[in-house]
Amino acid sequence: SPVAHWVWGTGGFIRNMGALDFAGGMVVHMTAGFSAIVAVILLKSRHDFNKVETRPYDTGMVLLGTALLWVGWFGFNAGSALGANGLAVQAFCTTFFASAAAFCSWALVDYFRKGKFNAMGAGVGAVAGLVTITPAAGFVGFFPAIIMGLLAGLVCNYGVSMIKERFKLDDTLDVIGCHGIGGFLGTILTAVFASKSVNPAGNDGLLYGNPNLIVTHLISSLAVIGISVVGTFVVFKLVDAVMGMRVSLDEEKAGLDNSQHGELINSNFEEKDAQHLRKVG
User: Fold this and answer.
1) CA-based, 20 to 30 A from 219: which of 3, 19, 167, 226?
2) Among residues 5, 43, 41, 54, which one has the least CA distance to residue 26?
């Protein structure tokens, strides 16, 4: 809520600076991504993180979810025009072009890095493209949207790999790589590609003779990162002190569906773990 006021509210200092965020690149995605860094570090990794091979539970369901999210994002971005008008159509199209481009570039990066195309990765790439275009959707043209999507697939792919492989952060849903890095990338690229010819209510970016917008977006991004990191740290510590933020090792090994919710034991759940859980709780 504070960031929403800063960016969109009357009197918000980021709005007063002239920063552009059409549908929530800073408000939604950067806050989520940089809050996730704090949460992942404080919560610590799962006990078997990087110790056993993990596979997607159901690739088909993930791709179905990606498709549903992709469709819903049109409402998210185009709806930020606050009307059924030409600006909404512009945001709708840039959203699609960027996500489609990121879908392709992520798959290509996977191919060159690993020698194989990966459907799961391409789905994540589509989301990275959606995130990256969000702040720019109503401020940029179609070709810049494609460029932003291509860069999103490239940068976020390497970002996700670095987070898990180099920094060993257990970011299960790639929130840091997609939403944090993607949101920041989109915010900066908005300041590069924005044009008043697309949206007179916006501003011209670097390519249209206004390098100051880059500086404005960098300052705005630092402010958003700061409140996300500090605010999440405070909230995490408060909740942890009151009720705890992490289950015990025994409960984690047993599986949270079983230990926290009493759901039926699935076929991959070993009976010895079930017996162990009964003993501890």
Assistant:
1) 167
2) 5
Q: Tell me what pLDDT residue 152 has.
A: 98
- What mean pLDDT comes out for the span 126-149? 98
CA-to-CA separations, 93 to 103, 113, 137, 141, 207, in angstroms, rounded: 15, 30, 8, 9, 21
Q: Looking at the chain, how many residues does it have? A: 281
Q: Distance between CA 268 and CA 171 in Å, rounded? A: 23
* DSSP-derived secondary structure letter, 268: T
Q: What sign has the CA pseudo-torsion 71, 153, 206, 35?
A: positive
Joined tokens for residue 135: 């702040």
- Residues 6 or more apart whose CB falls under 8 angstroms from that of 35 comprise 228, 229, 231, 232
Q: What is the sign of the dihedral through the CA atoms of 17, 22, 26 and 27?
A: positive
Residue 101: CA count within 13 A, CB half-sphere: 24
User: What pLDDT is recorded for position 84?
Assistant: 94
Please give the Cα distance from 79 to 119 (Å, whole number): 29
Expressed in percent and rounded to 5, the helix, strand and coil fractions of the chain are 70, 0, 30
Q: Which DSSP letter does residue 249 get?
A: H
Q: How far apart are CA 140 and CA 150, in angstroms?
A: 15
Average pLDDT over every residue of 74-92: 96
pLDDT in tens, 196-223: 999 999 999 999 999 999 999 999 999 9
Distance CA 223, CA 6 (A): 10
Q: Is the Cβ–Cβ distance between 116 and 98 less than 8 Å? A: no
Give the helix/strand (H/E) hosting 68.
Answer: helix 59-78
Find where tokens 């500086």 sit.
215
Cβ(128)–Cβ(102) under 8 Å? yes
